[in-house]
Write a structure and sequence with these properties.
The complex is a heterodimer of chains A (162) and B (233). Chain A folds into 2 domains: 77 residues, RNA polymerase sigma factor, region 2, helix turn helix motif (Rna Polymerase Sigma Factor, Chain: A, Orthogonal Bundle); 64 residues, Arc Repressor Mutant, subunit A (Orthogonal Bundle), CATH 1.10.10.10. Chain A contains 7 helices and no strands. In chain A, helix 1 crosses helix 3. The radius of gyration of chain A is 17 Å and the shape is globular. With 233 residues, chain B is an alpha+beta fold. Chain B folds into 3 domains: 50 residues, no CATH class; 50 residues, no CATH class; 105 residues, Immunoglobulin-like. Helices cover 35% and strands 24% of the residues of chain B. In chain B, strand 2 and strand 3 form a beta hairpin. Classes of the chains: A mainly alpha (162), B alpha+beta (233). At the A-B interface, helix 1, helix 2, helix 3, helix 4 and helix 5 of A face helix 1, helix 3, helix 4, helix 5 and helix 6 of B.
Chain lengths: 162, 233
């Protein structure tokens, strides 16, 4: 059947990317596999709610996957430190070269942030760090981390809207 | 919390997307999000704005069992496993990820997909799976005309990290039960599955304790923890 063939193609094209995203947040393969499963079940069930005028497909699918992974993070704290992840899931420097023009805007605006703000935002978004985990990792008071993030996001938006 | 304050709305939407809004505040925000178009727009803005950070994450090929489980949960008949992609092709996948082809594929899923069936779910089978104290743990509702089962988790279930609970359809014929996928364990969480075997051929549901990810063999390997018939035989 055509719908299923399309779904499988969608899975084949996007699952490595979404699995990579889930792994970065959850650090554990079995949990990331579970998150990916749940995400694709939701994608199938919610396909009718997708609005092309509101979001690009990859953004919509990434959000579903990230939010599921973040939900799972709540109940099982990450046990594997980031350093123990296999090389294949570590950030890739040449990634930036692949970015489309619109992505370059975010990169430029991230550059404008203070180092601490940029680091906190990237660690929270990509690696699922909570305020508390950032505070521990950066050995900085919780209130300071919160304000870095709050102000960083504000500045990011001002920059993106210029 | 005051959801009318514009600055606060914006901050909550941004931190929801970033992932730093956690715990009960996150759940509360999600409830508001469902019914508040302004919050949806703000959230959508941030999802799009931060997407390049996700695009930079290196893809990792998931094992083929993930696709098999997805098919089982959606009641799709097992077809050829997802074409295996060699690692060397991952750079090509990155290109595909940002291309417009995705939109066309999703439209195909959508046009031919089952969205309508799901919305017209009318259960004619309702059973409760109880623990040893006779407290309901899950509510299982099923619509036998659509072979669709909805499991609602009534209480949190504690489980060792290396275990999963698997749901089975117990068959009238006495043949081995058919797997319906993994049970949710978090209170409030729902799980929807379309059975590839007609529910009429079953007489009840059972839940077994399995290694994490479910039975590796396709038949229950662990102890049956819950069982409930929905039809007298």
């Amino acid at each position: 059947m055509r719908d299923r063939a399309a779904f499988q193609q969608l899975y084949n094209l996007t699952s490595p990317h979404l699995f990579g995203v889930a792994l970065r947040i959850l650090h554990t393969r079995s949990l990331a596999e579970e998150a990916l499963q749940d995400a694709f079940v939701q994608i199938w069930q919610k396909a009718g709610e997708y609005r092309a005028d509101k979001a690009q497909v990859n953004t919509w699918m990434t959000s579903i996957t990230r939010y599921r992974a973040l939900d799972m993070l709540r109940k099982s704290a990450r046990e594997t430190p980031l350093e123990e992840l296999p090389d294949s899931v570590m950030p890739e420097q040449q990634g930036a070269q692949m970015m489309a023009a619109e992505n370059a805007d975010l990169e430029l605006c991230m550059e404008e942030l203070q180092n601490e703000q940029r680091e906190c935002i990237a660690l929270a978004y990509v690696d699922g760090y909570s305020h508390q985990e950032l505070s521990d990792r950066l050995d900085t008071p919780l209130g300071t981390v919160k304000s870095w993030i709050r102000r960083g996001l504000q500045q990011l938006k001002e920059c993106l809207q210029r | 919390m005051n959801y009318q304050n514009e600055q606060l709305r914006e901050a909550l939407a941004a931190q929801y997307v970033l992932g730093t809004l956690r715990g009960s505040a996150r759940l509360r925000f999600e409830r508001w999000l469902n019914q508040d178009p302004d919050l949806q727009n703000r959230t959508g803005y941030w999802e799009q704005a931060l997407q390049p950070l996700a695009d930079q994450v290196v893809p990792v090929q998931p094992p083929s069992r993930v696709w098999t489980s997805i098919q089982t949960r959606l009641g799709m008949q097992a077809s050829l496993p997802g074409k295996s992609q060699a690692t060397s092709r991952l750079h090509w996948l990155r290109g595909a990820w940002v291309s417009f082809g995705l939109a066309a594929l999703l439209v195909a899923v959508l046009v031919f997909g089952p969205a309508e069936e799901v919305t017209r779910f009318t259960p004619d089978i309702e059973v409760a799976l109880q623990n040893e104290l006779a407290q309901p743990v899950w509510k299982v509702d099923a619509d036998s005309s659509k072979d669709t089962v909805v499991v609602s988790t009534v209480r949190n279930v504690r489980l060792p990290d290396d275990k999963s609970l698997e749901l089975w359809l117990v068959l009238e014929s006495g043949e081995p039960p058919i797997s319906l996928g993994l049970m949710p364990t978090e209170q409030g969480r729902k799980y929807v599955v379309k059975s590839s075997t007609p529910l009429r051929e079953g007489i009840g549901f059972a839940v077994s304790l399995e290694p994490r990810g479910g039975s590796p063999t396709g038949v229950a390997t662990g102890p049956i923890l819950y069982i409930q018939t929905y039809r007298e035989t």
